[in-house]
Every structure is written in structure tokens, then in C-alpha cells.
Amino acid sequence: MNTAALHDRHWNAIDHVLLDLDGTLLDLDFDNHFWQQLVPQAWGAVRGLEPAAAQALLQPRFAACMGTLPWYSTEYWSGELELDILALKRQDAHRIRWLPGARDFLAAARARGKRLVLLTNAHPQALAIKHERTGVLDHFDASFSSHDLGAPKEDARFWQALREIEPYDASRSLFVDDSAPVLHAARSAGIGVIRAIRRPDSARAGHRHEEFVAVDALVELIGGQPGADPRR
Q1: Are residues 137 and 75 in the same domain?
Q2: Are 17 and 85 in a shared domain?
Q3: CB 157 within 8 A of CB 182
Q4: Percent of the chain beyond pLDDT 70?
Q5: Angstrom distances, CA of residue 108 to CA of 25, 30, 52, 203, 204
Q6: Cα(152)–Cα(78) distance, rounded to whole angstroms?
């Protein structure tokens, strides 16, 4: 029995469905490949470094930024690395794809009359590319990037700013994300129903979420199976 699935009693207590983008709706394989392979390769090429050597040099710089707004900024890294990050993302955009069953969940939530809101740390420039490839924004009533709110989702200030521009009852909201720090922030913000994604990257093994009710894929929340998505 799927104890993480949302049943009528859950849906009856939910007005807002707040969803993460990368690793919840879209396959995190794109971002992981981009930052761990493509960027080190491009950065190392202009410096005469092998990709592995470049990655070893870049990793501490990446780690120092994780969880902060600059980490998610294409503009920041373009300046920091002297690379056209946006152009590189477009070069690799063919890897952007939906996670299996994600659109089925969106359709089910829409059919129940819930307000669908996208909450993402993705920079607006990156979000635009992902929308071009998938049409993801067409599924939502509203979308907000942390770069517009001045703080990442890991930060309490994000949730405070969100409440000012998207009035919602936190206790009657569902939030789904793959990041443990973000999930903790959502819980601190009083979100009533929280679910975690264990397999945000289809090319990698899943990870555990011991403190949150978790599923491999969003579609499991409506009783579906995370198999292949013929519409990818």
C-alpha cells in the first residue's frame, strides 16, 4: 500500500499545490550533467585542463555557494567562471525532459480545482529555457523564482516574501521537493502537507528522506507508477 499517496481526506485539506521544478517535475539529470560534466569541460578547455582536473578545482567553489542565491544564478557563474553559462545551457537543452508521470499529477491536481504554483530556485534565464523545451509554465496558475523574491527556498525569507505576493494558507497547502534543506524550510514555514522526491535524477540511484514522507516520483502521489513517460 502506498502510504504516501494523497487520498480524498488529504485533497479536501489542500487549497494550494506548491511544486518544485528540477528533480520534482523535470529530470535533475540535466542540471547534474551540466554542472558536473559540461561546465568543467568547457572551463577546463580554455585553461588547458582535463575535465577531471577542472572538476576537482571547481568543486570547492561550487560547494561554498550551495544553498545560497548565487549558486542558482546563471549571471553569477557567467561572471565567476568567465563562461557564457546561458549559451552552454542552450547547447545542452536537448537533455531537458519531464520526469515520468509528472504531467499526470498536474492534471489530477488541476481536475480537483487546486491552485497550482511553481516554486523554483532556477534563475529566470534557466527557467525560460526549460519552459521553451517543456511548456512547464503552462501548467501553473503562478510561478515564482527565488531570484525574484531575494532568497533561496532554503531560507525563511523566501517563504515570508512568497506570502506577500501569493497569499496562501500554509496549513492548507501541499509542497513537494527533492531537497532536504528546502523541505525543512517548508516545514518551518508551516506547510501542512509535505512530500519528498527520492529519485530526482533518472540516471542515478535514489536517496533517502528519513524525516519526510517520500515517493520515487510525483505520480505516486495519485497512485500511479513511475514508469516510462511516452510524452517525454
Answers
A1: no
A2: no
A3: no
A4: 97
A5: 14, 26, 44, 26, 27
A6: 19
